[in-house]
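Troubleshooting: if your tokenizer reports a length mismatch, compare your output against this known-good record of 167 residues.
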Amino acid sequence: MLLPRYWEEGTVALDLLYRTRREWNERTIARFSRLLGEVSNWAHCDELSNHSVGYLSEKFPDVTGRELLKWAGSRNRWARRAAAVSLILPARRGMLLPLAFEISARLLEDEMVQKGVGWLLKECSKTVEREVVFFLAGRRTSLLVLRIASEKMSKNGKDAVLGRIAK
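Known-good structure output:
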């Protein structure tokens, strides 16, 4: 077992892990894949993926990107959520947007991870709102994803995304 049994201890362990990030290399993502198998709640999933894997995604985008694509197709719902949530910080900086859209497309209809996908698209919309509107326009997805993705959009962007619901 890699993660401690109790929630509080797991949270502290993941925080301590993140503090070692300067020592990480391209092989670290494989360790995180194994650790992700121990995740059993959204808080630990987001703590690991948003900060730690997000950092790795920026530092080693090719290696991490390949792993995130595998996670997006996993049977493990926490791995699928992590695939999306891991790209939130890079997307906020306008980085790895093609990968963010590719993973979002794979997970849009996945009920177990839609909040994470919506969150990722919301962060993408901060730098490339038109692309997010265009991305969502041609896809079938839930109201939940549309609402979360459009939270930070301009009025025109929100109207374009949410207006299709009223029809």
